Amino acid sequence: MKIIDGGVTAAEGFQAAGLAAGIKKGNTKDMALVYSEKPCVAAGTFTTNVVKAAPVKWDQHIVYEAPTAQAIVCNSGVANACTGEEGYGYCKETAKIAAEVLQIPEDSVLVASTGVIGKQLPMDLLGAGVKNLVPLLSHTREAGKLAAQSIMTTDTVSKEVAVTMEIGGKTVTLGGMCKGSGMIHPNMCTMLGFLTTDVAISKELLQKALSTVVKDTYNMVSVDGDTSTNDTVLLLANGAAGNAEITEEKEDYQTFLDALLYVNTCLAKKIAGDGEGATALFEVKVVGAESKEQAVTLSKSIITSNLTKAAIFGHDANWGRILCAMGYSGAQFDPEKVDLYFESKAGKLQIIKDGVATDYSEEEATKILSEKEVTAIADVKMGEATATAWGCDLTYDYVKINADYRS
């Protein structure tokens, strides 16, 4: 696998565009279009929130029932959530407009929205936006960047990644973009993400691959404990690479799965690091667990602890908060066997050994915790299982951003 500079336009046969349609205040980019020159097999994972936005319901219908997909229309500024039948009708209308302009089937158009809950989409602006996006479609790197910028809400940076790999003697490319900064919490998938690949693969295995990697990527991210109504990840594969179609879980499938895991891990970490108001990416590794389930439970409990997140913001090695979060997680372990380390570019320091504080330097700990990426490693000494979760610190700005989000 090779990491390359790219996003949703990196794979063969994919184009993208982004623009300001006027949905958001000011001349801010707020609409994106991703298009494949060939029909694709599609996979998707969606929010577990009982309150599902209209685009989620539309996309579930397309992914689960339609034979192919070929385009994704995404708007920022209005979430089209809690909008009833009218909101769902707007999804259908958006798909119809895009289908007519692109000359593709209506049921091959996926839609996505992000922004304020409860507002109806301004369909005059959205419809015009779709029509204006199509002539701008391009396979260039710049087009991919514009699309990634156009799906942002409170994100401070756009989020993209791409890789290539060898499958069946052919070079296969996988790229993606996502948005996510607030209302981020595990269980699928706390963001909008769009992935494109030119690999030839069966629809069944494409879905299995995506569902598999989500467990160790987006489901291990938390910013604020709130799971969105719009969480969606879509993966399109158009087969343009020309490899023999992957229909079995053999070497070629594993190669693709490894690449997909890498891409989604990168995107998940970008979301956590760009959490609303955040100054640091906070990574938690639980090692020495007796089972994967135990490791996941412990790492998630630490990453979602507001007291721990506040300590990371203050560069304070308040390890008691971490041990406390582990203790109320529901997972069973012996606190008198736990070792805890803090690590960053500034170094690595053991904070507790067998549940008791070491004679560590507070000054050195603060130095380590002052970096933009900080890792806590908890060893429970019970087995070989591990899990990694990602979050961010909790700052004053998080409250400021969310106090006036609508106004």
Automatic annotation (TrEMBL):
Involved in the stabilization of negative charge on the oxyanion by the formation of the oxyanion hole (site feature) positions: T114, G115
Catalytic activity: L-glutamate + acetyl-CoA = N-acetyl-L-glutamate + CoA + H(+); N(2)-acetyl-L-ornithine + L-glutamate = N-acetyl-L-glutamate + L-ornithine
Active site (UniProt): T190 (nucleophile)
Single GO BP term: L-arginine biosynthetic process
EC top class named in words: transferase
One Gene Ontology term, aspect cellular component: cytoplasm
Pathway: Amino-acid biosynthesis; L-arginine biosynthesis; L-ornithine and N-acetyl-L-glutamate from L-glutamate and N(2)-acetyl-L-ornithine (cyclic): step 1/1; Amino-acid biosynthesis; L-arginine biosynthesis; N(2)-acetyl-L-ornithine from L-glutamate: step 1/4
Family statement drawn from the similarity comment of this UniProt entry: Belongs to the ArgJ family.
Name assigned to this protein: Arginine biosynthesis bifunctional protein ArgJ
